[in-house]
Automatic annotation (TrEMBL):
Key words of the record: ATP-binding, Kinase, Membrane, Nucleotide-binding, Phosphoprotein, Transferase, Transmembrane, Transmembrane helix, Two-component regulatory system
UniProt xrefs under InterPro entries: HATPase_C_sf, HATPase_dom, His_kinase_dom, HisK_dim/P_dom, HisK_dim/P_sf, Histidine_kinase_KdpD, KdpD_sf, KdpD_TM
Subcellular location as annotated: Cell membrane; Membrane
Regions crossing the membrane: 379-397, 409-438, 458-479
Protein name (Swiss-Prot/TrEMBL): histidine kinase
Amino acid sequence: MSRGQLRVYLGAAPGVGKTYKMLEEGHRRRERGTDVVVGYVECHGRRHTEAMLGDLEVVPRRTIAYRGSAFTEMDIDAVLARKAEVVLVDELPHTNVPGARNAKRWQDIQELLDAGMTVITTVNIQHLESINDVVQEITGVPQRETVPDEIVRRAEQIELVDMAPDALRRRMAHGNIYAPEKIDAALGNYFRAGNLTALRELALLWVADKVDEQLDRYRAEHHISATWETRERVVVALTGGPEGDTLIRRAARIADRTKGAGLVAVHVTPSDGLTGSGDPANLARQRTLVEDLGGTYHQVIGSDIPTALLDFARGVNATQLVLGASRRGRLAQIFSPGVGVTTTAGSGTIDVHLVSHEEVKRGRGRVAPANALSWGRRGTGFALAALGLPALTALLTQVRADVSLPSDILLYLAWVVVVALVGGLFPALCAAVGGFLLLNYYFVPPIHLWTIDEWENILALFVFLAVAVAVSATVDAAARRTREAASARAEALTLSTLAGSVLRGSRPLPAVLDQLREAFGLTGVSLLERRPDAPPGPQERHDPAVWRLTASVGDKPCLTPTDGEVDIPIDPDLTLALRGGPLAAADRRVVEAFAAQAAVALRQERLAEQAATASTLAEADKLRTALLSAVSHDLRTPLASAKAAITSLRSHDVVFDEHDRDELLATADESLDRLVRLVENLLDMSRLQAGVLGMSPQPMSAGEAVAKAVDQLGTPGRDVRIQVPDELAEINVDPALLERILANVLSNALRHSPPGRPPMVTASEHAGYVEVRVIDHGPGIPVADRERVFLPFQRLGDRDNDTGVGLGLALSRGLAEAMNGTLEPDTTPGGGLTMTLRLPGTRPLDPSPVPAQPTDANTHSGGEATRT
């Protein structure tokens, strides 16, 4: 019996319509003549879902007793006995009641699949095991019911049931998901717009990865190597030359023109070793540039560079390949077309861009020579050639009658190989030529003459010479490659250690210098920078007044480049001074890579410092400008009103009755009260900016704080509706500051609420935090302007000049953050603004595990249902 197929409807959150879609698919299949039954469906009281269930055949559930209560689960035996073609099973991650045959519902579904039935099921993205912890960080709600990703990935069909967050919240507000008494709590907790947006992105990315896997598998199964332009991906090839920066920026611009295009950089290392494969300092700098531009860097090994480039590009499904124009001269291009031409000819459907740059036709530069054998081994090889050949000749002349000429040639060839193994190419060449001459003089007729009588002997001698030279070159090349590979391996390990130390360190510059010191056994490493005001001169490298010490590790820092045994210039203004002995020439390339990385780390530190300073200055300047603007108008307005009232009272030209005098005094009193509030807000904001705001935290209930804040509002506050549960945890706050926050937010809500629809205050407890929401049904604030209302001296949407200097919300957010809380705006379903004040509660979270209990697969705070 063949295994059945699995179809999964994946949703970003409860209520998007997964169960509805599953039932809809069941009706379609039944109409086509397929035998369809419902193994388990949970409608959660939603009338549209119940209507879609309709007349589909439902297998009766099994009742299980647990802890004195009765629960119903899918009857797996009854479904297996029914032997339907298609079974609809809701809530894939559901945990079965203890006593059921399987612990999890996905295990029940595996049995149905093994029995040959096709199963259609549903799951939310938050219940996938791999992203369970991510969802908890986003929503603050632990998901205890999970399903292994592999179960879902093995499904033959996965369909994403998507819905925009605002649309889902409107569905919630209209009562299409939960009962009315649960709507406010759900909207303020799990179903916040930010949570839904994050969950939606997770679902889209997970399904996109699944689609990529299916596409890659299909291409592999059908042996498709051609590029399918499902998504633009730009690959830039780097050689390690100075032109790489130009190529990377050009490739980044090409990628930016196509939204969603990826940037990938690749460097092909020759398969015969890392030596001569590119300047490591350039590659290190270019890798940083690629990653700063949002791309990824890769290094591959290939004997043929064009083939390796195209294989890599096709492997990542690239659509465009960026190459630099050849740096070789015209003469070199005559004998070989070059990488660019060869790659273009074999690119197929991949677009190849040959980018011109300043290094065109300047040549590749000096290539580092291959690592030669030591002089000791070379000397030994020459000695073996000089002493061994005469000794071999003397021996063979004694047995000339018993040994033929071919045997003599083989013995000389064997000795040439021995010389090549010991001394390398040049001693072996000398041995080959010497052996050729000795064979001709002592063993080829006529003997003791340099002439040869027979053409066959001439051929044998020249074949001996050719084979000896070829064997010598091969043996020498193998020895060189062995040394190069060992050196390259050591360089690669050192550079990989360098990268790891930089990534792990909180301060990358000291980590780079310390790793350099350890790698080469140095006693000290110093990074020196030329002073900007230092005059150039012939003795500048010896003058401590020209240089300043930027960073140093080890003992006795160097104050000038000449203080160390070795100095590595990085650029005209930076140099690296090393103490601890001379540096081998072969190690200088790796040290240059360290130096380049040190320069990058220094620039990053400087940029971070400049950014922090600039941000602080910009904020201070912005605040100063706004304050002057506010003082010029908003502070002067209440002063003008109070002065006008007092001046009128002191005037002897007009006689006021008692009512007019009371009105003028009331105007002056109100204006001065407004002025006092403005000054207090300005002082509190300045204390916040300076970080000297005094607080006296103490436990306080949210209901008490809301009541006091409403009392501060006076008569307008009587219309505010309050729904704060008594069982909420207390919050550890400064009562006066909390009342200021709530009063400011409530005042703002009252000012913008339409007549007959006063604001409402609700509160709930969520993930260890107490959240107080002030909900109004006014005009609301566009999403793009929400952060602006928290800037000092902003009065977004105010139509009068009596609303203050715009410090209320800015001060409220600052006070909330000072008490380790947050103040965030959100859209009220149906129109309006909801301000959510989130403060840590004093009630500790219960670390004990929740006992096993049958729960809905979508159980959460504000979730679809909870059955206990």
